[in-house]
């Protein structure tokens, strides 16, 4: 099978390349090779290559810059919103399957129980708006015969990618701060799920191989928690004596609002292992 992976140097993209590379021809694209905001370039390349599968792991994720900078918002809208639509159109043109990743930030966070795939998205920040636009641009092509998976996920962590744009994940940041400070103040709000990129890549491969029904899926590791609880789990696993103080999100004001409860319920596929188990594996690397 011939597979194009966009965002191939990112933390998720690197895992996708690793998981799909056996018995497949991988065409790995990152932003320094193919600018996804160039519609003509992307479309022509896909038409020329005629892949069987396109996986779009490219994304803009600077949530706060997107919120308070109009130029950044316009760029985020291109990468997260418009590009998925014309990549999906090109996939349809060559009869390729299409996989795209979205976010828990398409929801407003007001649900006490979490969100199923069928629940209505209502983003509360501009980043979430761009991710929802991407979903809509893709889904409107399903009536024309597009075969696609839209995978919503959240709080990615895992081996760092090769791209210079890759940010440190939450656990790496906590470990770095713990080396500098005896005590850490961590937000004990914003409940959601962490997702280990190797687990997400493996699950994506299973979905493709098993030809699961097309549509929207939620894929996250089990055990939703706050930032504070995640930090607590990290230092417990490492047996590190770090003093943690619970604080509210008001202690760390940011331009973009965050959903208070953005738990993604993945009821359409078997439950993934807990994020703590995945974190233990990550810390052994």
Question: What kind of sheet is the major sheet?
Answer: 6 strands, parallel
Strand order of the largest sheet: 2-1-3-4-5-9
What gyration radius follows from the Cα positions, in whole Å?
A: 19 Å
Task: Give the termini separation.
Answer: 30 Å
What is the number of beta strands?
10
List the domain count as a whole number.
Answer: 2
Corresponding CATH superfamily of the largest domain: NAD(P)-binding Rossmann-like Domain
* Number of helical segments with 4 or more residues: 9
Which overall shape is indicated by the principal axes computed on the Cα atoms? globular
What structural class do the secondary elements suggest?
alpha/beta
Helix percentage: 25-40%
* DSSP strand content: 15-25%
Name the CATH class of the largest domain.
Alpha Beta
Low-pLDDT windows of residues: none
**Secondary-structure element sequence?**
EHEHEHHEHEEHEEHEHEH
CATH topology of the largest domain: Rossmann fold
Task: Please give a structural write-up.
The chain is globular, with a radius of gyration of 19 Å. The two termini are 30 Å apart. Helices cover 39% and strands 16% of the residues. The protein has helices at 11-20, 39-49, 63-68, 70-93, 126-139, 170-180, 197-210, 227-237, 275-283; strands at 2-6, 25-29, 53-56, 97-103, 148-153, 156-157, 183-187, 195-196, 215-218, 243-247. The longest helix is centred in the first third of the chain and has 24 residues, at 70-93. It folds into 2 domains: 2-157 and 194-218, Rossmann fold, CATH 3.40.50.720; 170-191 and 224-261 and 273-283, UDP-galactose 4-epimerase, domain 1 (Alpha-Beta Complex), CATH 3.90.25.10. Helix 1 (11-20) packs across helix 7 (197-210), helix 2 (39-49) runs parallel beside helix 4 (70-93) and helix 4 (70-93) packs parallel to helix 5 (126-139). With 285 residues, the chain is α/β, with parallel strands linked by helices.
């Amino acid at each position: 099978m011939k597979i194009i992976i966009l965002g191939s140097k990112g933390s998720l993209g690197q895992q996708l390349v690793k998981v799909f590379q056996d018995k497949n021809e991988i065409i790995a694209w990152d932003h320094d090779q193919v600018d996804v905001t160039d519609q003509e370039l992307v479309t022509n390349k896909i038409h020329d290559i005629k892949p069987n599968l396109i996986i779009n792991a490219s994304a803009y994720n600077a949530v706060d810059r997107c919120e308070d900078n109009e130029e950044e918002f316009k760029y985020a809208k291109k990468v997260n919103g418009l590009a998925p639509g014309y990549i999906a159109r090109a996939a349809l043109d060559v009869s390729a399957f299409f996989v795209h990743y979205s976010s828990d930030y398409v929801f407003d966070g007001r649900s006490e129980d979490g969100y199923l795939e069928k629940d209505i998205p209502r983003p509360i920040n501009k980043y979430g708006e761009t991710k929802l636009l991407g979903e809509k641009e893709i889904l409107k092509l399903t009536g024309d015969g597009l075969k696609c998976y839209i995978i919503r996920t959240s709080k990615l962590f895992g081996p760092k990618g090769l791209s210079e744009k890759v940010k440190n994940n939450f656990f790496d940041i906590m470990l770095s701060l713990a080396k500098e400070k005896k005590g850490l103040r961590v937000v004990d709000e914003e409940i959601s799920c962490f997702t280990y990129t190797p687990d997400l890549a493996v699950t994506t491969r299973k979905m493709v191989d098993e030809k699961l029904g097309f549509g929207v899926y939620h894929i996250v590791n089990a055990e939703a928690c706050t930032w504070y609880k995640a930090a607590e789990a990290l230092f417990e696993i490492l047996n590190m004596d770090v003093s943690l103080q619970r604080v509210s999100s008001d202690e760390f004001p940011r331009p973009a609002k965050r959903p208070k409860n953005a738990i993604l319920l993945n009821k359409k596929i078997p439950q993934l292992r807990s994020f703590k188990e995945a974190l233990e594996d990550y810390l052994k690397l």
